[in-house]
Write a structure and sequence with these properties.
This protein is of the alpha/beta class and 392 residues long. The strands form two sheets. It has a seven-stranded parallel beta sheet with strand order 4-3-2-1-5-6-7, with helices on both faces. Helix 6 links the parallel strand 5 and strand 6. The structure holds magnesium ion. The site of magnesium ion (MG) has 4 residues, from helix 8.
Length: 392
């Protein structure tokens, strides 16, 4: 049977890797729909190569000229954010790979869950800010959520060796970022340049900063909490500088099952597509003899306050996680622009969470409202601080 796939965000790094994986999987996997925001040139190339029935261009200004560049092809083009929601629920689509940056893909992801699609989720925001809403919708409509984030894919894979009731806890691994050896005192003075030098994974600037603050792992705790219906007491984080063990599951009998592999997103993408089967693909097998040793250590939660906060936010649920995510996005933007210091990122987030009156029941409106509240709050806070600094 052919599996028809929609890739939301096909011109980004996950989207491009997903197409590579589909190429290697052969003719039982078909590209049925694609979407892009602004990289129309690459989207047109992808359309000519894969001939999907449908594409969505979320920024309508960029989509206007697409018709001309693919003239003879029958692909239906849908413009604007609604187009994304439409391709996510097409009858022709079995599996949706959601790889749209940030929270922009959320309405489409919820629509896919409502239509009972298999949903492979690659970015963190959907589960972080709308985990409860998304999992409820998926459960009600028999939609399977398949993690593509490497740690969650590892946990999902390890979980196949026992029943849900036999799981004692899950252990997320973290590279620890560039500052895993820093003291609380030293971390106050780290520069933007030092922050952007990540030891193992090569990623965009926002995610690299999130890895240095360990915010990334805090988000993954929240993701795991919803995805695997796991209370925070049963989630652990271990620093593992080699980034080879992608995560582990401890079962009630004391056995720990881990998933290992090269740091390469193609493997988790492929497993999400072929699950519950395993097939030969493009991922290179790991050479453990070349790696030699694997280290694990406990993260220092006094230094990595974001991680500590992540556990609290996961427990609180509701709009707290929305504020956590949005305040971080706003603060990281300020840091990347050179307007605040590294430690100010977590201070701004903490301040924002302290002022926030969290709602427990969630709708998309609540999510977007809490999101813009947090961004306004961070902006106001920075303005206030720089004004004060100016008068001193
Ligand atoms: Mg990850």
């Amino acid at each position: 049977m052919v599996k028809n796939i929609a890739i939301l965000g096909s011109t980004g790094s996950i989207g491009k890797n997903a197409l590579k994986v589909i190429d290697a999987l052969g003719s039982s996997y078909r590209v049925a729909a694609l979407s892009a925001h602004s990289n129309i040139q690459l989207l047109a190339e992808q359309i000519r190569r894969y001939e999907p029935g449908f594409v969505a261009v979320t920024n309508p200004d960029y989509g206007k000229n697409l018709r001309e560049s693919i003239d003879e092809l029958k692909t239906e083009i849908m413009l604007g954010p609604d187009g994304l929601v439409e391709i996510a629920q097409l009858d022709e689509v079995d599996t949706v790979i959601a790889a749209v940056v940030g929270s922009a893909g959320l309405p489409a992801i919820l629509a896919a869950a409502k239509s009972g699609k298999q949903l492979a989720i690659a970015n963190k925001e959907p589960l972080v800010i709308a985990g409860q809403l998304l999992m409820n919708l998926a459960n009600q409509n028999n939609s399977t959520i398949l993690p593509v984030d490497s740690e969650h894919s590892a946990i999902f894979q390890a979980m196949q060796s026992g029943s849900r009731e036999e799981v004692n806890k899950i252990i997320l691994t973290a590279s620890g970022g560039p500052f895993r050896k820093e003291t609380a005192e030293n971390i106050k003075n780290v520069s933007l340049e030092q922050t952007l030098a990540h030891p193992t994974w090569e990623m965009g600037p926002k995610i690299t900063v999130d890895s240095a603050t360990m915010m990334n792992k805090a988000f993954e705790v929240i993701e795991a909490h919803w995805l695997f219906d796991m209370p925070t007491e049963k989630i652990d984080v271990l620093i593992h500088p080699e980034s080879i063990v992608h995560s582990l599951v401890e079962f009630v009998d004391g056995s720990i099952i881990a998933q290992l592999g090269e740091p390469d997103m193609c493997l988790p993408i492929q497993y999400a597509l072929t699950y519950p089967r395993r097939v030969a693909g493009i991922a290179r097998p790991l050479r453990l003899d070349k790696i030699g040793s694997l280290r694990f250590e406990k993260p220092n939660l006094e230094i990595f306050r974001a991680l500590k906060l992540g556990f609290e936010v996961a427990q609180k649920g509701g709009t707290a996680a929305v504020v956590f995510n949005a305040a971080n996005e706003a603060a990281v933007e300020e840091f990347l622009a050179g307007r605040i210091n590294f430690v100010n990122i977590i201070e701004l987030i903490e301040d924002c969470l302290n002022k926030h009156d969290a709602k427990t029941t969630l709708s998309l409106e609540d999510i977007f409202e809490a999101d813009s509240w947090a961004r306004r709050e961070v902006a106001a806070n920075i303005k206030h601080t720089t004004q004060n600094a100016g008068t001193n």
